[in-house]
Specification:
The protein is α/β, with parallel strands linked by helices and about 325 residues long. It has helices at about 15-35, 40-50, 65-75, 90-95, 130-135, 135-140, 175-180, 195-205, 225-235, 240-255, 265-280, 290-300, 310-315, 320-330, and strands spanning about 55-60, 80-85, 95-100, 105-110, 120-125, 145, 150-155, 160-165, 185-190, 260, 305. A five-stranded parallel β-sheet has the order 2-5-8-1-9. A two-stranded antiparallel sheet has the order 3-4. The chain has a two-stranded antiparallel ribbon with strand order 6-7.
């Protein structure tokens, strides 16, 4: 990587490229934890999605720092950032853009929406109705938006980081399966530990802006081209056939597993391998091991499967069923 930007250089030795890429991600993790207290699994999940070029959905009750995490990442990222606050009256054109009539030229001109950015925060995504949520489907899958019959490419890299509140029902609209499947990872943010909460309160009460934790002091660690370079390095890491087979077996096992009425599709198998590569890069390795796949499996699978009605009534969680599946599907011994 260059001294100035940290960008991996094509002429460099592949192993030194990987080492420097890992150091860059570690620096980003360290910077994020200056604003986000605790929540190590969620921070690592967001970094995994960033390196694996996937979208991420962060779920948690209000006040745990979901939006703060994405704001902190945006602060450490030198590319373009946009935020959409999803509300029941939000229209699809508010997301993708629309054609406006220009009186001077007497022609219609395209006004691009906030999706034309590198990092998009879709805040409280389940507060908008289905037709508005659907406006994200094309750009999340194909990295392009069709406006007035023209396909316009989104900037690269392009990542959607969405948040949602799982406990509130009034004024919310559940995300359809097609939308959920486009998120590579679904991360659950839980309450902080007692010592972490003390540190969080201490930090938040120093701010002059009520309970807002400032992110303005964070350093810019990555530029857009650095993220693309990281994604390329991760995509070239070695995946043994047995490890790839393990990822596919995990996804396929959900389709006829007792207690699951809907299994994960092929996108889950792809996501497991891509996330496995990203996790290997995060730990500075040059090949993927079964634990890399297993470590991200809950986040990859939990939003792609559906519990059977009887287990749902009993109060069993999706994570409990998936944990049993992960324990029982044998991992290869490399």
């Amino acid at each position: 990587m260059s001294e100035a930007t940290g960008e991996p250089q094509p002429a460099a030795n592949p192993s030194s490229q990987r080492e420097r890429a890992s150091q860059l991600v570690q620096a980003l993790r360290h910077e994020l934890h200056k604003a986000v207290i605790g929540q190590h699994e969620v921070v690592d999940g967001v970094l995994t999605a960033l390196v694996a070029a996937g979208h991420v959905l962060v779920e948690g009750v209000p006040g745990l720092g979901k939006t703060l995490l994405v704001r902190a990442l945006a602060r450490c990222f030198g590319g373009e950032f946009a935020r959409i606050q999803f509300t029941p009256d939000l229209m699809p054109s508010d997301i993708t853009g629309h054609a406006v009539y220009d009186l001077a030229s007497e022609q219609f001109k395209l006004r691009k929406g906030p999706v034309f950015t590198n990092l998009l925060l879709a805040d409280e995504i389940n507060r908008a109705p289905a037709k508005t949520q659907a406006a994200l489907l094309e750009v999340m899958q194909e990295r392009q938006v069709t406006l007035e019959g023209r396909a316009l490419a989104a900037p690269q890299p392009f990542l959607v980081m969405a948040t949602q509140n799982p406990i509130e029902q009034e004024g919310t609209y559940p995300l359809p399966e097609a939308e959920l499947d486009r998120f590579m990872l679904m991360l659950r943010m839980d309450y902080p530990r007692a010592d972490e909460e003390q540190q969080l309160v201490r930090q938040a009460t120093r701010s002059a802006r009520a309970d807002i934790i400032e992110v303005s002091g964070l350093r810019v660690i990555l530029q857009a081209k650095d993220v693309q370079a990281l994604q390329k390095i991760a995509s070239e890491l070695t995946v043994d056939d047995q490890v790839l087979d393990y990822a596919v077996r995990l996804a396929r096992a959900t389709r006829d597993w007792p207690g699951l009425s809907l299994g994960a599709g092929p996108r889950a198998s792809i996501a497991l391998v891509r996330c496995g590569r990203a996790r290997a890069l995060l730990r500075g390795a040059d090949f993927v091991i079964p634990d890399d796949i297993k470590g991200c499996a809950l986040a990859v699978l939990r939003h792609r499967v559906r519990l059977s009605p009887e287990l749902d009534i009993e109060g069993t969680s999706v994570d409990q069923v998936l944990s049993q599946l992960l324990d029982q599907v044998p991992a290869p011994r490399l």
